[in-house]
Write a structure and sequence with these properties.
- The protein folds into two domains: 32 residues, no CATH class; 40 residues.
- The chain has 102 residues and is mostly helical.
- The termini are far apart.
- The protein is 68% helix and 0% strand.
- The chain is rod-shaped, with a radius of gyration of 37 Å.
- The protein contains three helices and no strands.
Length: 102
């Protein structure tokens, strides 16, 4: 697990910060916990927003599926008679008349 003190801090700075934490009976995880606690209301808001967006996405996907099913049914209803050969207007072959040449 990566510690919040890892990264660009050099070893001397890390030791100095750790010594300050020990003076107050803290460690780096206590600091992370406190920062999380202070941000909890924002995190809860973001969580509610995410849940709302997921719900809207799911509703939209259900609507698309319903529309797709309805469209497929309409297409089947209109194409079945054509495929079965009934109720189809047929053009009869009429012989061509020769045009008069001038």
């Amino acid at each position: 697990m990566l510690s919040p003190l890892n990264g660009s801090l050099n070893k001397h700075a890390k030791n100095k910060v750790s010594a300050i934490f020990r003076r107050f009976h803290l460690d780096e995880f206590a600091v992370v916990a406190q920062a999380t606690k202070k941000s909890l209301s924002d995190l809860e808001l973001l969580d509610r927003m995410l849940a709302s967006l997921e719900s809207r996405r799911d509703k939209a996907l259900r609507s698309v599926a319903t529309y797709r099913d309805s469209l497929a049914k309409q297409i089947r209803q209109s194409s079945d008679p054509i495929l079965e050969g009934s109720e189809v207007l047929r053009l009869e072959h009429a012989p061509r008349q020769k045009s008069a040449t001038v």
